[in-house]
Structure formats: C-alpha cells, structure tokens
Design goal:
4-oxalomesaconate tautomerase; PrpF-like; isomerase; Diaminopimelate Epimerase, Chain A, domain 1; 16% helix; single chain; 33% strand
Length: 353
C-alpha cells in the first residue's frame, strides 16, 4: 500500500468514482471496505483526507474483474462509500458509474477495443443483470470527446448508450414486492417498486410540497427528512430488503406534475441526501411507476407516445426509453450517458482509524 494502488478516477454520468481492478485490491469484502473508507476519507463530512468529494455522488467505487459469465465481457461491482459514516454498501447498483465501466474495462485491458465502436457486455454483480454499453473507440482507442450533452454535466462528450434487459425485481425479487401498486405507510400513499432500483414513490403534495423545491431547501428541512426516513424504515422490510437503517436503498422519490415538458417531476432522497439529479435505475423505476394504475405518480404523469420518458430533476431531465410488457415489466430499457477519464494514477490510502 505504501506504493499506492492503481486507480482510474472517472466521471460516469452525473457521478464521479474510483475504478479499480479486483486483482489490485485485498481479498475479502471486510478488507476492501476498510480500504475504501481510507481511500475516500470517510467518515468525515468533508472527506478532507481522501479523494471523496464530501457528497454521495462523488464517493463511489467500481471494482472490475474478468467476466464470470459467458454472456458478459466484464464483471462490475459497485460500492457506495458513505460520507459521514464508516459504511460501505453493495446493496444497490449505480447506472451512472456504470457508464464509465466500458471505457475503464478497455483502458485496463479487460476488453479488447474494436475500430469504431466497441460493445461491452457488463455483468452488474450487485443485481445479477447484464447491461450493454457502446463505447466510441476510433482506431481502437477510447475517445471521450463528442457533442452529447446530459443534464447535470457541463459541455459535450462522447455518447455512451446503455441498454438493459428485464431488470424488474433486481433486489426485491419482483417489480412490486408487496404485490400492490399502492401501499399506505404513515398515512402516505406509496408505490414500492423495483425496476432496476428499489424506490418508494410518493406524491410531493402529501408532504405539503410542490415538487419543485431546491435540493438545499429539502436538505435543511429536518422534520421532512425525519418523516421520509420513518417511511423508508417501514418500507424496507415490505420490499424484502430487511432492516435498511444502514443501507442505501430504497431510494425515496417525491413526484409532481412535470413543469418542463417531461413526463414527471422528481426530487429524490438517496436516501439521506437530496440528489441533484436522479439515478439511472431510479429513473427507470419512477418512469415505470407512472404507468401503474393507482400509483401516486400515475395521475401526475404526462405519458409519452413514443416510450421516451423525460424524468425531470433539479438540474434538468433524464431520458429513459422503455419498452413495456402487458404486466408493466420493462422488456428493454435504454439510456444515454456520457463518461470521461479524469485521472489515471495511483491512490494512497489514509491511515487506519
């Protein structure tokens, strides 16, 4: 460790994270978790002695290894390193960090690049599903430059299309783990749904909100956060997630009628901070909830004719293309993200605490 650990620091979608090869890390999750806390500088609200940015969106880790499945090219394990707690969670995947996995796998020699474009089949170890990322590789090298823009990221970059198969019940075992489109928890109508990400979808109006509040205003409302957390703790066991007090799922999403031409407006708790955008898989789950009769999202949503849902969030909108079956299962989902290599070098973990 005194010589540092090879690390790619990358932006994936609207998140940033450290990308490692599994062979460069110690064996065993306990040792890895302890190491990641030292690398990120947790627990500390500023993460001042590590590379984390003091925000859940910049305190993320991807661990890559050779594929263990015939239908994949690379294995990807996502870890969420909590900022102000000594916790590391693999209880969820991350669709934004996923956008950097294809480029990182090519950069590190796990996947051979083709001339032009390279399709990378990614085994998402957290949930067991497969995603296919298409990476721009002119001349057999990753090219991050381009004109594709996504809300929440300045400037244009190379597009990274991501395509998913059936992701229903990724962690909860079924799309609607309670078997119902709506459950009432603490007097609030909720849709408990898992279409790639376990989410609790609620009408912002049930909390006396309009749904267009700034994240900072929601962050500062201690009573609101306590009420939402109380619902989350009850929803966890109902969603087959068990005790979620120290877990990063389910995500808590407040919805409202769209205001900028989208399908639905959102404000997401992830779960202890308010997301400045919305996660990729959370957007898929919320878009699906819009189509469920009885869901709090359904009467608020403006349903698209072409299956392209623009899920509005505080800094713009995430576009999700859904092909849905008769039982509301997503047969295929597609999103376009971008990614960029920010730093390639060695990271030096802080001292053990």
């Amino acid at each position: 460790m005194s010589d540092g650990i090879p690390c790619l620091w990358m932006r994936g979608g609207t998140s940033k994270g450290a990308y490692f090869l599994a062979r460069d890390l110690p064996a065993g999750r306990a040792a890895i978790d302890a190491l990641m806390l030292r690398i990120m500088g947790s627990p500390d609200a500023r993460q001042i002695d590590g590379i984390g940015g003091g925000d859940p969106l910049t305190s993320k880790v991807a661990i890559l290894s050779p594929a263990t499945r015939d239908d994949a090219d690379v294995d990807y394990l996502f870890l969420q390193v909590f900022v102000d707690q000594a916790l590391v969670s693999d209880a969820q995947g991350c669709g934004n960090i996923l956008a950097g996995v294809g480029p990182a796998a090519i950069e590190r020699g796990l996947v051979a690049a083709q001339d032009g474009e390279t399709a990378v089949r990614i085994h998402m170890v957290n949930t067991g599903e497969i995603a296919t990322a298409t990476i721009q590789t002119p001349g057999g090298r990753v090219d991050y430059t381009g004109e594709t823009r996504i809300d929440g990221v300045p400037g244009g970059h190379a597009a990274v299309p991501l395509v998913f198969g059936d992701v229903a019940g990724s962690m909860c075992g079924s799309l609607l783990p309670t078997g119902r489109a709506v459950d009432v928890i603490d007097g609030v109508a909720c849709t408990l749904i898992d279409n790639g990400m376990p989410c609790v979808v609620m009408d912002a109006a049930a909390f006396g909100l309009t749904g267009d509040e700034a994240p900072e205003a929601l962050e500062s409302d201690a009573a609101l956060k306590a009420r939402i957390e109380a619902i989350r703790l009850k929803a966890g066991p109902m969603m087959a997630l068990g005790d979620v007090a120290t877990k990063s799922v389910p995500k808590m999403t407040l919805v409202a009628a769209p205001r900028a031409g989208g399908a639905i407006a959102t404000r997401s708790f992830i779960p202890f901070r308010v997301h400045s955008t919305i996660g990729v898989f959370a957007a898929v789950s919320v878009a699906t909830a819009c189509a469920l009769p009885g869901s709090p999202a359904a009467p608020l949503a403006v349903m698209p004719d072409d299956g392209l849902f623009r899920v509005e969030h505080p800094t713009g909108a995430a576009e999700v293309l859904l092909e849905m079956g008769a039982d509301w299962t997503v047969l295929r989902a597609g999103v376009v993200r971008t990614a960029r290599k920010l730093m390639d070098g060695r990271v030096f973990p802080g001292p053990s605490r």
